[in-house]
Amino acid sequence: MTNLQRKPSLGEALVPIIFLILLLVINIRIFGTDSLSGSNQMVLIISSAVAGLVAILRLKIGWEPLQEGIVNSIGAAMPSILILLLIGALAGTWLLSGIVPAMIYYGLQILSPGIFLIAACVVSAIVSIATGSSWTTVATVGVALLGIGKALGFEEGVIAGAIISGAYFGDKMSPLSDTTNLAPAMAGTDLFTHIKHMTKTTTPSILITLGIFGVMGYTISAEGSVEQVRGISEVISDKFNISGWLFIVPILVLGMIVKKVPAVPALLAGALLGGVFAVIFQPQIIQTIADEAETDYAYQSFKAVMMALYGDISVVTSNEMVNDLLSTGGMAGMLNTIWLIISAMIFGGIMEKSGMLVVIAEAVIAKVHSLGSLIASTAATCVFFNLTTSDQYLAILVPGRMYADIYKKRGLKGENLSRTLEDSATVTSVLVPWNTCGATQASVLGVATMTYAPYCFFNIISPFMTVLYGYLKLGINYYTEDEMREIQKELAV
């Protein structure tokens, strides 16, 4: 809390939070799913102004420190913003090249309605474990699975819930994931101890999730029919040159990420390779998008690929459902989401720099007594930070710093804290419409956060599972007496 004249009171710290929550409730009731088009962004900016007024008028903090907090907060989100822009570009060229249509086409041949939801969850989980990225998983195989599910007649919210459940299971269990590395670093344990400890709560959570999707797959009355699926497949194959060679691009992208190539260059390579494959495999689509029948193919190719990278493109067919699947917004389609992320980071930056977030967290810690209440408070704090700072990394970082010594003093090893951070912060971020994760997945899939959130069973179950384990004292690792004596010496210093 640098440059603070005094520590904020709990009442002062809660003013911006209460204002934000009330205004968001009103806003969502008025605008509904359109609230992400600008009104939620304005709510966050106005709430930031309220937080700034409290900091300046009550806490006597100058504007410069607050601006520094805002800039640092937005700077921390820049990698996510770059990834989001490149996901938009990748989606555009993967549509133009026929990669996503090919995924949909082949998926329709092998997936039946009865097993689809389980398959969507499992496939997303496998890809996410391999890549360490829920965002990449949702933006690649997730988009294709959404198209397949809609063709089979499932509601988009249910499909997105299955995809996101699998993707976030893989994200939190993969040693390649940034959050899976961040949580043990904050809690003071090592990566593989953390992953092993997470299996105790994560395994039952994903099994329950798969069970629910299994029941839903056989009980939901999907509107799709064999004839409809066949018709969609025929339309796609008539419009695009479908070939197994198209899968070279996604395989190369997934391979780069598995080999720990950073996400930004890997996604850029995937987007550009998609453009190259479009030129090679889809000359008729290139001509349609470029709408330049009289010019040479090189000119048409450059124009069509550039349009796919940056803006709206759509492939029109005789089938309305296929038309919905074959459209994308490129980089420009991500700008509303980026606007939301920047607005959220402004609010989070002021709240953190002013010390108001820390005061709220300390008030929660003061109420902790039992093991169960400690873990429940940790989980609740993570969810709270996802709601207020709109960033899953802050929801891991700040509670991790807050609770690390408390866990040590109570004889609890670091993996207990790191598991709780992942079981609550990582997985619930995607359930919040104004969180970077919720906004991103809603934008990438084209499904509103509040539409898919009720069906993200893994993400909903996980925090309750970790709290249940805490109250039942299951799967808890304790320090030995010798280790505790060393820790007491360390804390005394």
What labels describe this entry?
493 residues, mainly alpha, two-stranded antiparallel sheet, 24 helices, 2 strands, globular
Question: What this model shows, in words?
Answer:
This protein is an all-alpha fold. It is 76% helix and 1% strand. The protein is built from 24 helices and two strands. The protein has helices at residues 10-31, 39-58, 63-96, 99-110, 113-131, 134-152, 156-173, 178-187, 191-219, 226-239, 248-258, 263-281, 283-290, 297-310, 320-325, 335-353, 356-365, 371-388, 392-409, 414-428, 436-445, 449-452, 457-472, 481-492; strands at residues 313-314, 327-328. The protein has a two-stranded antiparallel sheet with strand order 1-2. Helix 8 (178-187) packs antiparallel against helix 20 (414-428), helix 16 (335-353) packs antiparallel against helix 21 and helix 18 (371-388) packs antiparallel against helix 23. The longest helix is centred in the first third of the chain and has 34 residues, at 63-96. The radius of gyration is 24 Å and the shape is globular. The protein starts with 9 loop residues before the first helix and ends with a helix. The model has no long low-confidence stretch (mean pLDDT 85).
